[in-house]
């Protein structure tokens, strides 16, 4: 390469710009770190073709899939009528046999926790959901998600107005889905509304839309029920359509002749008039039993699934106190003092999560051990913890049963009963504690949940929908009753103290004379005692809200078997407290069956257009009667998900530095998300700067792989200025001649990656790439004289010969970190990678990147150590771009844009302040103290989640060197010190408006830039 003339002034040095692609940047970030979504099983999907849906299922769930197919067509008839909308063709439903299989889906890329009952995604308008342990609940989830299918289809047909749909708040979208699938009778929603009235905390119109404290499913359900009750069900679809077009406010005003604010205020009046008289005769929440664990603010508000020790001294429960998930805690049963955290998924790499919505735990008879259900390696295991040592001493994998809930330890200590899902149906199982052997007690399509033992270990109580009006031909289901199975002869009897109410949490009294249970028989969730000999029923609680866990059938009660005390959940102030009743208080008052008035959502007097109530009460209309749908093979062909404008993207490459640009991209996938094809075209200027990429992924199995090809132009420039003279209008004047060398590097690359996730936090990657690099160099000249700019022309310069490289590699990646709003705040990450490079050049690349985070709310500490280097005889070839440590993502205060020519010293071509920042090897160390200023109550000094803001105090250090220039490890601050480490310290603000687009503003003191005091910088990047 021809050298530039010696410059007396230097404006820019080595800044590397290039075309970037949003798709590329996102893919690279996902591959560099990130937890793994492990596909523990490979499902052989087939398709049931109904009149309106394509049900994707696998053989293990075939019977249930046929039932779900009939439910789906019935829901189509119901929803198409009430919404006055039909669609052509069929819509896809991807069905999983249980929630453990569902969490492995590729249709939804992110993690799906236990709280996700189903998802409807917009690209292909797919419903993805598991079959639950109860057909009634599966039917509800299916109906809810199919409302979303109609919502998407209506919006897409309105000239593709999905943007309008995306602007609607969750209360509007989810509340509508809940109302059309549940109707105006819901003890769960009514309980939430009564709690808000009781605490003078009804949400305003604005609160509904922006305050996440008001659960959109419950409050949205209540408001939609009020709208439909006053104006008729036919108005629901009309309001939705016009809201997509013009917004909620305009739609409400048009159809209801009032503003949204006036509507919500009228709803408040109706709620109070309806529920206040019902609550007046009930006992205050704090006066019901003894408060053991209070419902605190936010993270302390979720205290669920209480399980007392046999002697009643302790209570184990599940709580979200750790911020990162639900953990298992032990408290003193009298004082409520937290004694210890027994188990935590966030600190145990062998456990992904604890099952907390559908399950509680169980004590061994001697109180020394505790068993509970965890999600681990693609299935539910039974974890047994030594309570004193807080160690999991054993995990029992129940052969053939993936999804477990509600373990119950036998009074004899030899067996544990559980509810488990096999072939998409819930049944009861007995596990031998010593051997792990499994015995199946029931085997049918009925729901069999929440087992508990009789004191003599001869009988199991459980919750079931068998008997009553359950009919699998018409797919209608009885409310849950109390099942009793004799372990001697396996005979089952079903008790329904209240014939038309839900019964749950059944447990024997210590003397076996009574059964304690929970019921919503009058619309309030209360505890009852059923006297076996007399068949009389006694009510134990009379709460204005209710005894409830997170969901309708969540376990919310436990009995201390030696003392007879009952520990139970109370819904209070939007959270869950734990109360206890003494043995005397468990006698209760005589109770009779009452009308479930308290479960009705106002208004009680409803408009005559009450189609939702009608179709929910009619199981047969629209139901394909006893029809078996044909099955076809799964079609794995790809179809378009979306075409997008990538806008402007920014990325960083260890070889070529910063890259910026924009363009268009397209993404294709098969229906299950196993195979994905991404393509993009982007530009960074003229024709020479056009780039393209194609990427194909196969994610079907645990061993996943991807291949890609790309053409990427990178642009760099070097600018110098020298004094000269110019003739302007016949006069010779002093001028500055600017010389800008523009260098383009064109990378043609093919690559492949094979990945094997060892666990959800560890993976191996095997890499193979081939690249050819070509070069193009131009020299642009222009003069500046008398404040005017004169074009001096452009000439081509000789360029280096191209080079071809083959780059195999291997990496091990770990990520157990937990993210905050703008930065990781707990856990660790690491990436170790090695790649020998062959071809025109031979060298080796080594990457080591380790990060550790410690949380002390509202602050956290972060530490990073990074090394990347090329080693060997070809490592410093001038055709390879040098590595640069001055990017703000590495060391703040040394960005090339901030380095002025006056810092370069004596005016020759060397610039030590800059030159010490580049090399073929770099090492970086960072330390940050991060304080969450604006966040939420659980994590932040001020609860304001709309603009999360993090204050950061940082110290950065780095070193760059080459094969020929060894570094000199010393603290120096003079300009001519050579290859010394560089350091900076300062403060920054990271801001993520509405939780997206993390921005960082920083002030840094670069200690190895003696002529520079404080540098202000800005970057669009999350914290490392």
Describe the structure.
By secondary structure, the chain is of the alpha+beta class. It has 14 helices and 55 strands. The chain has a 21-stranded mixed sheet that branches. Strands 5-6-4-3-2-33 form a six-stranded mixed sheet. It is elongated, with a radius of gyration of 33 Å. Mean pLDDT is 89; it is low at 1-30 and 648-660.
Radius of gyration: 33 Å
Percent range for β-strand residues: 35-45%
Which structural class matches the secondary elements?
alpha+beta
Unreliably modeled segments: 1-30, 648-660
How many H/I helices? Answer: 14
How many extended strands?
Answer: 55
Shape label: elongated
Summarize the main sheet: 21 strands, mixed
Average pLDDT level = 89
Q: Which percent bin holds the helix content?
A: 10-25%
End-to-end separation in angstroms reads 37 Å
Topology:
Layout: E1 9-18, H1 22-32, E2 46-49, E3 53-57, H2 62-82, E4 91-96, H3 99-102, E5 119-121, E6 126-130, H4 135-157, H5 162-166, H6 170-182, H7 187-198, H8 205-210, H9 216-231, H10 234-246, H11 248-256, H12 260-280, E7 290-293, E8 303-308, E9 314-319, E10 327-332, E11 338-343, E12 353-354, E13 362-363, E14 369-376, E15 379-386, E16 391-397, E17 403-409, E18 415-422, E19 425-432, E20 438-440, E21 448-453, E22 459-464, E23 481-486, E24 492-495, E25 503-508, E26 514-519, E27 526-531, E28 537-539, E29 557-559, E30 566-572, E31 575-581, E32 589-590, H13 611-616, E33 631-633, E34 639-645, E35 649-653, E36 657-669, E37 675-683, E38 690-698, E39 704-728, E40 731-757, E41 762-785, E42 788-797, E43 803-815, E44 818-819, E45 824-839, E46 843-856, E47 859-871, E48 883-884, H14 912-915, E49 918-919, E50 921-935, E51 942-943, E52 949-961, E53 982-991, E54 999-1006, E55 1015-1020
Parallel strand pairs: 3-4, 4-6, 50-51
Antiparallel strand pairs: 1-39, 2-3, 2-33, 5-6, 7-31, 8-9, 9-10, 10-11, 12-14, 13-14, 14-15, 15-16, 17-18, 18-19, 19-20, 21-22, 22-23, 23-24, 25-26, 26-27, 27-28, 28-32, 29-30, 30-31, 34-36, 35-36, 36-37, 37-38, 38-39, 39-40, 40-41, 41-42, 41-43, 43-45, 44-45, 45-46, 46-47, 47-50, 48-49, 50-52, ...
